[in-house]
Amino acid sequence: MHSRKESTLKIAIIGQSTFAAEVYRQLRSKGHSIVAAFTVPDVGRREDPLALCAKDNGTPVFKVKAWQEKGMPLREIVDQYKDVGANFNVLPFCTQFIPMEVIDFPEHRSICYHPSILPKHRGVSSINWTLINGDKTAGFTIFWADDGLDTGPILLQRSCDVEENDTVDTLYNRFLYPEGIKAMAEAVDMVAAGKAPKIPQPEQGASFEPSVRKKSVRKVNWDQPSTAIHNFVRGLDSSPGAWTVIENKEVNLYSSKIWTLSCAKPEGESVEIEGCPNRAIVHSGGILIPANDGKHVNFERISVDGRMIPAANFGKKDEEKVSIQLTPEEEKIIPVLKTVWKNILSTEVDHSTHFFDSGARSMDVVRLVEELKEKLKVQLKNEDVFMSPVFEEFCSTVILKLRHGDAQKSVTFDAVDLHVNNMDLKFPKQLFIDGSFVNAENKNSMESINPTDESVICEVQCASKTDVGLAVAAAKKAFEEGEWSKISNRERATLMLKLADLMEANQQELATLESIDSGAVYSLALKTHIGMSIETWRYFAGWADKLQGSTIPITHARPSRNLSFTRKEPIGVVGLIVPWNYPLMMLSWKMAPCLAAGNTVVIKPAEVTPLTALKFAELSALAGFPPGVINVVPGTGPVAGAALAEHADVRKVGFTGSTAVGKLIMRGGSSGKLKRVSLELGGKSPLVILGDADVSKAVRMSMGGVFFNKGENCIAAGRVFVESSIHDDFVRKVVEETKKMVIGNPLDRSTDHGPQNHKAHLEKLIAYCKKGREEGAKLILGGNRCDRPGLFFEPTIFTDVEDHMYIAREEAFGPIMVISKFDYRNIDDIIRRANSNEYGLASGICTNNIYRALYFSEKIDSGTVFVNTYNKTDVSAPFGGFKESGFGKDLGEEALHEYLRIKTVTIEYGG
After folding, report:
1. CATH 3.30.565.10 corresponds to the domain 10-193
2. Which CATH superfamily is domain 686-880 in?
3. Alpha carbons 489 and 493: distance in angstroms, whole number
4. Which pLDDT band, with edges at 50, 70 and 90, does 669 fall under?
5. Partners of 249 in the β-ladder
6. CA atoms in the 13 A half-sphere facing the CB of 771
7. Domain 215-313 = CATH 3.40.50.2020
8. Assuming Cys at both sites, which of 40, 97, 402, 458 could form a disulfide with 416, CB separation 3.0 to 4.6 Å?
């Protein structure tokens, strides 16, 4: 519900671009009255998006070439503006100088969007300079408009972290664009309610940099460290582009990366860079240019004579265009592409039309990629448009993308067809054994339930002990006799990379399946559940051909000599059992290193979340994995799980789940033939917040630690220890922020908190909270099932929790924050309390004292320690617990050791 407005706003929107158009739509959807849209003149026959959407909704549109001339307002334009009767101006993306007479005219004045955290980076190139300066944080400001100097009072600000390879486009797409639109609407609501602040900008930290449109500003200075060069180039990518001179030819540079490979520089052709003392190398991956710190920066794309090409092709003769023969079905795609281009460019399109020469900008690239994703279900990247800007070339690119993966193999299965999240889903519901989808031998099935409304998504075949035996037999044959045993490690890596590409091409479908099957918020599913899965496959594909043994100097058997060396070999058939909180990610964490090591796999997904594992099986077949290498057997734990753990031909079991079930797996692994076991089990991870910590940061850190993925997170901060000096302030702020969380449909992009995974777990959380209240803990927020359809549970906060209480000792695995107060006298005391729990999966500390942080990280008994952050896992960093939280590692190089065996070979010669 929207707050009641204390005054009626009659809004004039002054701006341009898709951003301004989306702000217009957002304001209309929230019931605001828009009396006029002032935008820029047409470019050729191409109207600005703001003009188009305003016109479609019957709002008067004024296309203003300029508002003033020689510093003086143009009276005709100003009078035209005043006649619309606006009492408030909104400037969402305004590149023109608006006279103060217009800014100050309406009763409620004017607010403006600026893509930086003012007062830093005032001026027209703020995002570019955010990246060029290497800022770790980016963001935007909505401020009370001034005379174009960006110095007006601040209404609100939002920020985000800058990632190492962010560009202007990625920052816009990920944060500045979507969050900026929502924030503009929020700011208008605040003005309407009379609650909008006017915070004067401080002069401390203020900066105003020149426009990057000047060519002299955009030339690369090579006498700098690699990081500075990388920041400069990415700050100008994709527009207007940093430039240099290579072999006397002017070149624009794009897709910058710092060269981090530990191996020697790649082989290639040496070229001269103007102003660079050392020569660069044109190689298969781009152009590698040295910096003054001894490191290198690599550029994957360049523009020469206005044409974008792979940097690896610099100096080479242009390749002849490959003409592809279209099928009748593919012929029907061309008119669709032409219509999309025509709508974006507002001009006629033929085979020679150049996207950018026709007036397209970087935001139009985003629109093109998104529209084709929706219309053709094709996953393009921005680079595909830059590399194929001519319509005929672009059509070939799209057709080849659509063909990708389909030529390898067709996969048949009993499909479930759904239309969800504005897309058509098609996925298997059978077991995947020996490269084929098959029904369970006893035809048993189990319901897959959507936790959002408790409806049945579909019925999935349920594996019996016999089915598991067939899957293990197929995996054993593939390992000992099949193609998998014959191909090289490098060929295995190629298959893994192709699978990762297919997962990326289908990431929206996978994320949607994850949302409806597990209740994960779609945006989180897309970024973490699916995004990290893709990263995992690519990371371990890189390890596949680097599993090397070593030579060992041993004592010779005189007069003979000896040579001793080790071999790293796969174990054989591996059984994997994964949980329901991150269905695809847990599959990937375990299966990717397992296959990189050369093993074959039988995996049992969680009974309540099998859908992404089955879609993954389909993609593995399309990628060309030989039959039997990957087998997926959905089923129950007592039947399929137990059969897999106890099977004599399974040489290793990898399990993630509860400690109680982990102990059963251990017993199964020791009965009959011995097998290796790795266990990632439960947790009750302590998060310690010391009194010197920034309380606002500590609140954000603990909320992420507890409520991330609805609390269904093995490393969740199961108990938050807060020093007494800041305890009351922390509790007040964390309650205030938790109340702001939006609970709702996980497919809704505004949702923060989706439903719990399944009904039994929801009932466990209710009982957990009841137990906490009975033992005397103070419930200050939540604790109940939400009064709405679906398996929704309120984000919950307990205080006054004592060490002996049940909720202080046992894992909730849900959105329940358990807060304990402590007096800071001796850090050893709080470490002792944290270590007294039998779990040892993760821990965290929030403090500004590096000595306390390092001491805590040394003494705390957990496999992962977070300092001033939480939930920050990475595919290259090993992950696993101590004590009752299990043993063995996922991720990083250490994960490979879980799926390899070391063989020592000793040879005698001579004598």
Report:
1. no
2. Aldehyde Dehydrogenase; Chain A, domain 2 (3.40.309.10)
3. 6
4. low
5. 246
6. 17
7. no
8. 458
